[in-house]
Amino acid sequence: MMVRGVRGATSICEDGQQHVLEETAELVKEMAEKNGLGPDEIVSVLISTTTDISSAFPAKAVRSMPGWEYVPVMCTHEMNVPGSLPLCIRVLMHANTGKSQKEICHVYRNEAVRLRPDLANRSLEGEGAQ
């Protein structure tokens, strides 16, 4: 076992508490499921949002998930780079796993697939293989 990073990102259609919390929870659940991880294997979760998201702390969504109450979670804002994807939530999950770096399944949802099409497509290919 060693600590690996699992990346994920999603976008929301507008800044609103319900959108932030629902999309964050769905993204984190999918990241954990696709990598066979439960809350006990999660070391920590770092969540960033673009500066146009300010209606809710995405960490609240993770802490509200059953079994995830004790997982350390932290939020921050992304750099405000001109031309970057708006309304974007990014997640970096650190987890104890026996998987190699290449075996980790990174998850990109909604408009965020544009951030890493190479990894998003690999994730989709893995769905068909199961």
Automatic annotation (TrEMBL):
The keyword Amino-acid biosynthesis applies. The keyword Cell membrane does not apply. It is an enzyme of class 5 (isomerase). It catalyses: chorismate = prephenate. One of its GO terms (molecular function) is chorismate mutase activity. Its EC number is 5.4.99.5. Keywords: Amino-acid biosynthesis, Aromatic amino acid biosynthesis, Isomerase. GO terms for biological process: amino acid biosynthetic process; aromatic amino acid family biosynthetic process; chorismate metabolic process. It comes from the Bacteria. Pfam families: CM_1. Gene3D superfamilies: RutC-like. Coiled coil: none annotated. InterPro entries: Chorismate_mutase_AroH, RutC-like_sf. Prephenate binds at residues 7, 90, 108. PANTHER family: CHORISMATE MUTASE, CHORISMATE MUTASE AROH. This is chorismate mutase. The lineage of its organism: Bacteria, Bacillati, Bacillota, Bacilli, Bacillales.
